[in-house]
Design goal:
The complex is a heterodimer. Helix content of chain A is 53%, strand content 10%. Chain A is mostly helical. Chain A has one domain. A two-stranded antiparallel sheet of chain A has the order 1-2. In chain A, α1 crosses α3. The longest helix of chain A has 14 residues. Chain B is an alpha+beta fold. Chain B folds into two domains: 289 residues, Electron Transport, Fmn-binding Protein, Chain A (Pnp Oxidase, Chain A, Roll); 137 residues, UbiD C-terminal domain-like, CATH 3.40.1670.10. Helix content of chain B is 24%, strand content 27%. Chain B is built from twelve helices and 25 strands. In chain B, strands 5, 6, 7, 8, 9, 10, 11, 14 and 19 form a nine-stranded antiparallel beta sheet that branches. In chain B, strands 21-22-23-25-24 form a five-stranded mixed beta sheet, with helices on both faces. A four-stranded mixed beta sheet of chain B has the order 1-2-3-20, with helices on both faces. In chain B, α4 crosses α7 and α4 crosses α9. Chain B is globular, with a radius of gyration of 23 Å. Chain B starts with 7 loop residues before the first helix and ends in a 28-residue tail after the last strand. Classes of the chains: A mainly alpha, B alpha+beta. The interface between A and B is medium-sized, with 19 and 28 residues.
Chain lengths: 62, 451
């Protein structure tokens, strides 16, 4: 799976509800760790991430 | 020609020879690095990490014994050795032979995802580089070194925690006011003495790396970075070069499981833009596991402070130890050769230190590294109405939840109550009352003779 595809899945998961990075990674057990890092970097570069009051990630409302 | 002092990998080699390092040959998922380091009974070297070319070492400073072994010092001499190093500083020297630059990646080749940056704790805001010695140059104060956490953001960016007052923060503020980036280097995988010295908050004008030189008895070798005007440690395993962007405290960073064993909040912090990654051909990425590895890194400096303040107060000090549960900082135990009133004097001196919240002073017959012996002294040599000192309204730190930092107004600083326990033999009680039982013929009989 490509990093961009994993980034899309991460965005979908965070769009559904706020998650810590650990909770997010636990949802993607089949993805290689390095790909997770690449995907996370790609997702951050999209500038769509926000945080809730507990510091968990969510997709910012557009 | 290499440096006369040992490097990080020399330390790993020595620990291997001493059978103090667990070398895992089986391939490991980088997700599991943190858990495996916590579960191991000694430091770990992961020889193969899936998807990465680098090896990973972690857990070198997890407790007093491991820290002392990594340093190659006796456990009881952390504080006194550190004092000696500060007194005999040796300036770093620039060298031409830099193993840290065997591989150089700049520009579009920079990719932090080549490093097995681990996720350490459940609520952490992301994977963290936790064992980096960050260096920056100050025109007035010279070269500053410190240990700062770096949260992975993307292939060429990390967050950096600059909320707490520090020399690096002051330097960044100067550059920020001029809207200029601050060049820094981050050396990962350096000799334990160098990261220990970097964690020490040296007085103004004192170079942490000169302290490291004093502790080594030889200069720390520096190399000029390729893309920024800052040096790095020449035989580090990995060096990140780059700039702290002049954007101020604007980007999300944290939460992070910190040195006190609790999470620090989500913060707004600056961003580190990486302009080069250089490393050894077969580099080892060091993982500094929270909370105790970070806590123990500060232990030697704290114990050195206590030695100094007790000597200044005229106390005849025998030994000093910080306690792990207090993050090697908030609680201190000292043994002394007591004169009348000396227990209380010692307590006042120790509690005057800004970080110390609790102190126990015992006589020289008590082994302060044995919790049972300390408890024995606290139980049988203390009357709470006479031997416990409580000082209200003293300086505190936000990281301690018991000071209720969330109730503070903006800009208001927390305060704490300090407690000292004088567990020395009270004046007026003959020491003979404390004669320890001694079993018969213990020097004459060997259990091995009957096995």
């Amino acid at each position: 799976m490509t990093a961009d595809a994993v980034a899309d899945r991460m965005a979908a998961l965070l769009g559904a509800r706020a998650r810590s990075f650990y909770e997010l990674v636990r949802e993607l057990p089949e993805v290689e760790y390095r790909t997770l890092l690449q995907a996370w970097g790609a997702l951050r570069d999209r500038r769509v991430l926000g945080r809730d009051e507990h510091g968990r990630y969510r997709i910012r409302p557009s | 020609m290499g440096s006369p002092r040992p490097s990080f990998r020399d330390t790993l080699a020595r620990l291997t020879r001493e059978d103090r390092l667990l070398r895992l040959q089986k391939e490991v998922d980088a997700r599991h690095l943190s858990a495996l380091v916590v579960k191991a009974d000694r430091p770990v070297l992961f020889e193969r990490v899936r998807g990465f070319d680098l090896r990973v070492a972690g857990g070198l400073f997890w407790n007093r014994q491991r820290l002392a072994a990594a340093l190659g010092w006796p456990e009881s001499e952390l504080g006194t050795r550190f004092v000696a190093g500060v007194r005999s500083m040796i300036a770093p020297e620039i060298v031409m032979d830099a193993p840290a630059q065997e591989v150089v990646r700049t520009g579009r080749e920079v990719d932090l995802t080549e490093l097995p940056i681990p996720l350490l704790a459940e609520k952490d805001g992301g994977p963290y580089i936790s064992a980096g010695v960050v260096m920056a140059r100050s025109p007035e104060r010279g070269l500053n070194a410190g240990v700062y956490r770096l949260m992975f953001r993307s292939r060429d960016e990390t967050g950096i925690d600059l909320v707490t007052v520090s020399d690096l923060r002051r330097l960044y503020e100067v550059h920020l006011a001029r809207r200029e980036p601050l060049p820094i280097s981050v050396s990962v995988g350096v000799h334990p003495i160098e990261i220990l010295s970097a964690a020490y908050k040296a007085p103004p004008g004192v170079s942490e790396m000169a302290v490291a030189g004093g502790l080594h008895g030889a200069p720390v070798p520096f190399v000029q970075c390729r893309t920024v005007d800052v040096p790095a440690i020449a035989d580090a395993e990995i060096v990140l070069e780059g700039e702290l962007l002049p954007i101020g405290w604007t980007e999300d960073e944290g939460p992070f499981g910190e040195f006190a064993g609790m999470y620090g909040d989500l913060k707004a912090n600056p961003v580190f833009k990486v302009t080069a990654i250089t490393h050894r051909r077969d580099a080892v990425f060091q993982l500094l596991q929270m909370p105790w590895e970070n806590a123990w890194l500060g232990a030697a400096a704290t114990e050195a402070q206590v030695w100094n303040v007790l000597k200044t107060a005229g106390v005849d000090v025998v030994n000093v130890a910080v306690t792990e549960g207090s993050a090697c900082r908030w609680s201190v135990i000292a043994s002394i050769r007591k004169r009348a009133g000396g227990g209380k004097n010692a307590l006042m001196a120790i509690l005057a230190l800004p970080d110390t919240k609790h102190a126990i002073v015992v006589d020289e017959d008590v082994d302060i590294h044995d919790p049972t012996q300390v408890e024995w002294a606290r139980t049988f040599r203390v009357q709470a109405d006479k031997d416990v000192i409580i000082i209200a309204g003293a300086q505190a730190k936000h990281v301690d939840p018991s000071v209720r930092p969330w109730e503070l107004e903006h800009g208001e600083l927390p305060m704490t109550a300090k407690m000292g326990i004088d567990a020395t033999i009270p004046e007026g009680i003959a020491p003979a009352y404390y004669d320890r039982i001694r079993h018969v013929w213990v020097d004459d009989v060997r259990l091995e003779d009957y096995q």
